[in-house]
Amino acid sequence: MYFNQYGSAPEAMKALADVSFDYDGTHIPWQNLNETINQVQDDQLITLVRNKPFEINALKELMQCNALVLSSIPEFSRAIANEKWVSSLLIEHATSDPLVFSTKVVPKLRQAGWKIEFDAQYPYQIIDEPIEEWYSSIREESSEYDWFGLELGITVKGEKINLLPVIQTLLKQWKSRDQSPADDSEPVYARLPNGHYIPLPANRIKNLLNVLIELYDSDSLSDEQELRLSRLHASRLLELDAAMGAAQLRWIGGDRIREMARKLANFNGIQQAEVPKQFLAELRPYQLEGLSWLQFLREYEFGGILADDMGLGKTVQALAHITLERTSGRMIEPCLVIAPTSLMFNWQMEAKRFSPKLKVLLLHGADRKEQFDSIADYDLILTTYPLIVRDKHILLELHFHLLILDEAQFIKNAKSQAALVAIQLKATHRLCLTGTPMENHMGELWSLFHFMMPGLLGDQKSFQRLFRTPIEKHEN
């Protein structure tokens, strides 16, 4: 039985079957009414006697699959003008779903003895080759924020098949975890770029979706058909391993990213930091805990928000952190603190009082431009939100060890000029100090995280869909 198709549009497509019976290599079309077939083999006349009862029973099997003679259907009267379709059988499964026909009916027919072939252009073909392996490929990018490209796929007959476009399509179809297939015993048939379908274990696909759903969006895939992620999502790589169940992922590349993931997995608590002797304040227990947390963020390359209430010493903790970085030898570039103009004097006085060995430069006033060339000679640079916009041509050319936003709610509007400049500043580590990280809505919190750890919460559109709307409107 040879399957073709009638109709080019998917909604108009019909499966056509050219049916014949094989007698020792001689194919006799089903509509041939002759009881015997004469042919010449090796200069001898051979008469083939057909097994008509067998053929009739076989055709009855097809009729049970809703097979109809095309020429008997009025709506196809124009189609049969093409002689190649005159003898075809129209196959319509009861569900009117050609994919169901390919996955349910075709296997039964083959089990009954039918040999079934598909035209190369027939779209609903099922790849029945076994999956040799599942793989994940990581391509690390060289950028300020250490992005990496993730490809997730399978290998079939030695050929790698990237499943990310397939998973993206499934996410669009299912919309959420609750709308994924309920029956784990039934495979998920995923459409590949060549138009064919491959069965994938439903339970494994659902597990992968649970990991990836918060990372995906309609435009998540790069031109290379990779999922572009920040290194801050490294822990998700271990979740992918867990989602695979018994099948193991073969990892290709990304050793540094995966090492970070393992480090996070083995994390067993924040170690207490040792206050440097050069820092002249005695920290209260909660301030020492804050310093230890800031050191943890630095070690694991995270950003963070120190959100103690006003008056609890956020500036002191930040200065202790800066001093420890300086005395440890890690801070080979300056630290830049951006704060409201009203806090410039406080930062100067606190630094002089508690860490007098820090070389502090205040970039403020009309004469600040005279100091631009000497920025690299200082440990701590102080400037204001309005001035980073005016001085961006200088500041964007520099690289800082640590970038701190004091009263960070100043950039709660991600589209403000100060926020747009702050996100572009180059620094190894980023921190926010604010007792009010969110004043009105969660979009303000996204803006702070976008500064500290770009990509962690996705873009604004996906953050609103996955987090802000469910929490603010549905209390979910």
Give a structural overview:
This protein is an alpha/beta fold and 476 residues long. Helices cover 32% and strands 23% of the residues. The protein has helices at 52-63, 98-111, 164-174, 202-212, 235-243, 255-265, 285-299, 314-328, 344-354, 385-390, 392-395, 417-424, 442-452, 460-474, and strands spanning 2-6, 14-18, 20-23, 26-29, 36-41, 44-49, 67-69, 89-91, 117-118, 133-140, 147-156, 159-162, 188-191, 197-200, 227-230, 249-252, 304-306, 335-339, 360-362, 380-384, 399-406, 426-433. The strands form 6 sheets. It has a 6-stranded parallel β-sheet. Strand 10 (133-140) and strand 11 (147-156) form a beta hairpin. Helix 5 (235-243) packs across helix 6 (255-265) and helix 7 (285-299) crosses helix 8 (314-328). The longest helix is centred in the middle third of the chain and has 15 residues, at 285-299. It is rod-shaped, with a radius of gyration of 34 Å.
Concise description?
With 476 residues, this protein is an alpha/beta fold. The protein is built from 14 helices and 22 strands.
